[in-house]
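Q: What does the assembled structure look like for these inputs?
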Amino acid sequence: MKIIELKKSVTASNDADAAALQSELAGKGILMVNIMSSAGSGKTTLLERIIEDLGRTVRIGVIEADIDASVDAERIEQLGARSIQAHTDGMCHVDAGMTRAALDEMGSNDLDMIFLENVGNLICPAEYATGSHLGVMLLSVPEGDDKPLKYPLMFSTSDALVITKTDALEYFSFDMEKCMQRARSLNDKIRIFPVSAKTGNGMKEFEEYLLAEMKSLKQV
Amino acid sequence: MKIIELKKSVTASNDADAAALQSELAGKGILMVNIMSSAGSGKTTLLERIIEDLGRTVRIGVIEADIDASVDAERIEQLGARSIQAHTDGMCHVDAGMTRAALDEMGSNDLDMIFLENVGNLICPAEYATGSHLGVMLLSVPEGDDKPLKYPLMFSTSDALVITKTDALEYFSFDMEKCMQRARSLNDKIRIFPVSAKTGNGMKEFEEYLLAEMKSLKQV
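A:
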């Protein structure tokens, strides 16, 4: 398994770097998805499920960004997907330059779909474009339905919200309707997918959304 | 309820500012506790329980630091404790200057114990001293027992680890023994308290720890 130690990018404009990377990947028909959430919301478990469900027909690669450790990349490699562990040198996000460095090291030209598992928190990743085509945020049921009130930037900049661990809904006082309303009041275009990666509930709808986005990119 | 908009402190040394604040509070016999965790680990719920249990004999104040919103300070005020909502201007942590500004605005001279509920993430708050006497981190059972591997700085710099939502242990695959071992391998002095703020299990031990720390400060 590859590990890359990333350093802060020294560049005039992260937004310009991100736009360039996004356009290059689109030209090759490769969809990149930026997966963002708090620590412990189930990013890696969701990706494991997607790889199991789609991995036979879609060539998937995963960049696992973390401050430290390489447990997530090991989990992904066990399922046969390509992956690289990117250490962020203490930083709480990845930017476009860091993403490009990780892609170069991993190799991506023969892939169809790349997931960038961003550093686990709802704050910094919302502030840095990475070159991804889709921003997908996860919120797990145990975290609570009040999170849109506290992290408005993350909710307002994401294309999709995946509400994870819905199998635990009976156990926690999580008001699904209220949570969706709060998210939509910040972002009226956000797509919302309640899922359980454990039972598989709702996964099909989310995977179809990813496949449709990938196809629309390949058709351009 | 008071709300204060904090700006990044412009100062030569945050560590020196933190040491000065810590010493001033100690001189007044006031214990300040820095509460850190991911979003949704149950910081506010834990504080609500502590206020219910200790609030009649201990004068408690709470600084609620958040990027936005004021829902947490409202919850605390409903229990009759003094509180202030501190907005961090997009920053993922509070430093000593910001903490002092919030304390000045809230008023703290007649308090015994102050909780600083830091911004919800396991990364930035570990890097900035605040002037608190104790650093207490929370990890909730649904987040998973692998978190010490991913956020080593937070575990190695905290005085105590409170493992929250233990009432959900049966529902999640969380290896308590393994989690404790991982935390202790990073920090052999860390005090660990498994609790459920919902059922009250384990709360007494944690509250006795806080009271003992407060008393040792008042005796100096």
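Chain B touches chain A through 32 residues (CB under 8 Å).
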